[in-house]
Design a protein that fits this description.
Helix content is 44%, strand content 18%. It has 2 domains: 12-90, no CATH class; 109-164, Nucleic acid-binding proteins (OB fold (Dihydrolipoamide Acetyltransferase, E2P), Beta Barrel), CATH 2.40.50. The chain is elongated and about 110 Å long. The chain contains 5 helices and 5 strands; from the N terminus they run H-H-H-H-H-E-E-E-E-E. The chain has helices at residues 3-6, 12-30, 36-52, 56-83, 85-90; strands spanning 115-118, 125-130, 133-139, 149-156, 159-164.
């Protein structure tokens, strides 16, 4: 019996589907994203198993072998991501200098003492206008009606606390 005669009657389509499916799933492991290679890989694997397996037991054995191969590939991809060349493209390795400070909000300290008028009722939060600039503000727990003159008392982070301006005795 010749070597070529062993593979003469073999159908190559299921084998190509399984190999291509494994390759597509490994591509998805290396470059995760939209998931198209992973979905295509799963479809090709399912087609290869359906075309090749003659019994349910044979299909289960093939699924177990494919899962073992994909598990080994996942271990290699994760090892490469943490220590190898793949990790240099995925993991951020630059650092931020300690002398640079970052803030999630702007420093609004220059607004303290500014006077404006409430555009909405403050119970205790609402909107006020300060020289044409609309700001979300909070009263210090008190109810302030719409159209009332207010001033910015303090700023706590990004919370602007206002107080009602008392009428002056002129």
């Amino acid at each position: 019996m010749e070597f070529a005669a062993i593979f003469a009657d073999y159908n190559w389509i299921p084998l190509l589907c399984i190999v291509a499916g494994i390759i597509f799933i490994i591509i998805e492991m290396i470059n995760p994203g939209f998931g198209a290679p992973g979905i295509i890989g799963l479809i090709l694997l399912a087609a290869g198993i359906i075309l090749y397996a003659e019994t349910v037991l044979q299909a289960l054995i093939m699924i177990a072998i494919i899962l073992a191969v994909l598990g080994a590939a996942l271990v290699l991809v994760l090892q490469s991501a943490s220590k190898g060349r793949l990790g240099k493209h995925i993991v951020l390795d630059s650092t931020v200098d300690d002398d640079i400070k970052f803030s999630a909000f702007d420093d609004l300290g220059y607004l303290i003492g500014s006077e404006g008028k409430t555009l909405t009722v403050l119970r205790p939060s609402g909107t006020a206008d300060f020289s044409g600039v609309r700001l979300d503000v909070v009263s210090d727990g008190e109810f302030i009606p719409r159209g009332t003159a207010v001033y910015i008392e303090k700023i706590e982070g990004n919370k602007i606390v206002v107080k009602q301006k008392q009428p002056s005795d002129d």
